[in-house]
Structure formats: C-alpha cells, structure tokens
Amino acid sequence: MTQAPNETLPLAGIRVVDFSQVMMGPCCTQMLGDYGADVIKIEKQGTGDLSRWSLGEDPDGFNNPVFSSLNRNKRSVALDLKAEEDRALVLRLIEGADVVVNNFRPGVMERMGFGWEDLHRLNPAIIYAVGTGFGLEGPYRHKGGQDVLAQAMSGAILRRADPSLPLSTYPIAIADYAAGMHMVQGILLALLQRDKTGEGQRIAVSLFNSMLAMQMQEAAVRMMRGAELNWAAMPLSGVFETTDGAVVMVGAFKLNPLQDICRALEIEDLSARSEYADLDRQKERRGELQGIFRERFAADSTAHFVERLEGVDILCAPVRSLEEALADPQTAVNRMIVELAPSAGGPVRLVGSPIDMSAAPFAVRQAPPRLGEHEAEVRAEAGRGEDAA
Q: Scanning 9, 30, 261, 291, which has its CA 20 to 30 A from the CA of 68?
C-alpha cells in the first residue's frame, strides 16, 4: 500500500536518515514518517534491523509483526558500512538531509565516522538525534540500554500497589516508547529553532531520563517532602475481581468518595465510622478497606459494578484484554487500526497514529519496507546530487 506524498503534511520536505533499530528510534522515525518526512532506513546487509529476526522465524520472513508495527512510511536500504561505496552513499544522503537518528551506544557512530562533529562539519544544518540507555556521559554511558533495565534503575519496578506483591517488570516497553516520543519532541523543537538560526544541533534522549521524567510527581514529593507518593496504593482505588472478570476503580476527585463507593456496592457507609473518617485513616487501614471491597466485588458481574459505580460518578472501567480493546467500537471510531494489503504471512493490521490532526490526516503511504526494498531508487536520488529530493 503506497500513497503519493502529501506536500501539505507538516513534515513534507524533511529528510531523515535513520540508523536506529528495535523500538526507541524506530517509533520516533515512524511518527516523523507518518506526518510527511521522507525517512530513509539504513539497515545492515543480510540481516537488517534486529527486530526483523530477533523473535525467531515468521511466515512473512523479515517483515514480522513487531518490525512492521514500527516501520511504516519508511524506505529501506541495506548497506555494508565498511564498504567505501556504501559509506559514500550515506554521506551523500546526510549532506542533503535534515535529521539523522541513531540509538547505538555512545561511540559507535563516532567509530564509523558518523558522529555529531563529523556530520555537523559535513552539513551544519543537520539535526543529530541520539538515543541511549543512560546518557552520553557519566558512569553508565557504555552500559547496554534496554527497557526493563531503565525500569529497574529508575525506581519504577519497586513502585507497586502492595509491597507484599512480587517484583515484576512492566509488560510493555514503556521506557522505549517514552524515549522515542521525547526524541520526536526534541527533533521538532530543533527544526523550529533551525528556522530561526539556520543551524542544526545535537539532541539526546535516554531510556533512564524518560523513566525519571515519567515519575516527576513522585520524585518531587520525595525530594521536597521526603515522603512517598504512590497512586497505585491509594486506599479507595484498585483492581477487583468479579464473577466474570475484573473492575478497576478510582475513588478520588470527590469530597467523600468512600460514601459513594459504599452506596454503589450496597454496603454500610464506612465513611461514617471513625476509623475510616478521613484519607489519612483510610490509608492506615487500606488492607481492611480493600478486603471489604474485594469480597463485595466477587459477588456479582463486571457489568453490574460498572453500572453501579458510574451511577454515583465513581471513576471505573472493566479490565479488558488487548484483543477486546482492539475490537472495541471506540477503537474503530478513533481510527486506531489500519489495514494494509495482505502479505505472505496473512493480514497486515497495525495500530495507527494516536495524534488526530484535522488538517493533516494520518495515512500509510508506504507499507513496512522489505529489507533493501528502496536501495535502487535511493541510490539514484543520491546520484543526482543537488537535484535529489
């Protein structure tokens, strides 16, 4: 599925040379491509992006669902960066590009001759975006960066609703996605500044910094008051199993949420008892309250309790599987699923863009590329020198 570029898209005319792989960098460059940038994905000959094969064999070969989910609206070239001809091609591309993206460990791009200083001399207007695990400097600069490592070292894994629960990593790549979106923001800010100064710059993001930034409220309370803030451990909130599933409830943003919760659960008004009369005492007796809630929720269905809680304006929702969420009518209304032409592995269905712009509608103009699919056309464009577009 390929559509002609829309020259009115906000990033039309911006060329991105993308060395990144796996998730942090690719989710960034995919968003740039979704809104008009020409993203040229530089891949290793023979194997390509690690996510093409690191999860094992797939019916669609190197275009497995994980790779496809992160690499639409890009063009792929497969190169040997030890070969002078291929290195020269990359330098020609960068000479006419706006943005270069990589998420290698510090020093890797420099050893290849593609570091910030090298490329800034070649193209003073270039915006050089680099993502790392822990930062470009400091004691962990050379430590391998990975999502769950950042979760662990940032303090996020220790943040549980109940300290008696076993430690566990978050089951989605929250650090990768957050850092990728921070990289998008940095690139857009640098493009705006370049419009004023004519100069490019280096921007850097890391998984570690993004995980700290996601805990900004908790960190401020810790540093300024020496106290612990844990939204998951609030006494009137939690996940409660029902006869046919589970309900998540948030007892907050009201003068006396406990009174309304009790009314919805059809139990006595616990807020009238002195031991539960205010938030501090409710925190002290969180275990007792949660036990009462669990026993009541276990007596009826998810739909029953959602209706009851919503009837008293207590925030709640059914706990869904991903399959159920994808099939939800709200997902369809929000146009969050895009379907491309079937591949060798069957249907190609991807999550769309979470950004809805009235004057810049999201579209898949280029399906996730085969390894090296666009090499001939990119070489031809680079060979035209200043005429390349």
A: 9
Going by C-beta distance under 8 Å and a sequence separation of 6 or more, which residues neighbour residue 296?
Answer: 265, 266, 267
Could you tell me the two tokens for 85?
Answer: 């001809």
Q: What is the CATH number of domain 15-215+328-387?
A: 3.40.50.10540
Amino acid, single-letter form, for residue 291: G
Burial class (CB in 10 A: 0-12, 13-18, 19+), 82: exposed
Number of Cβ within 10 Å of residue 174's Cβ equals 19
Strands 346-351 and 38-44 come out as unpaired
Q: Which residues contact 141 (CB under 8 A, 6 or more apart)?
A: 105, 106, 132, 134, 135
* All structural domains of the chain with their residue ranges: 15-215+328-387, 246-318
**Tens digits of per-residue pLDDT, 85-132?**
999 999 999 999 999 999 999 999 999 999 999 999 999 999 999 999
Q: Hey, what are 164's tokens?
A: 């008696």
Which amino acid, residue 115? G
Residue carrying structure tokens 């993004």: 210
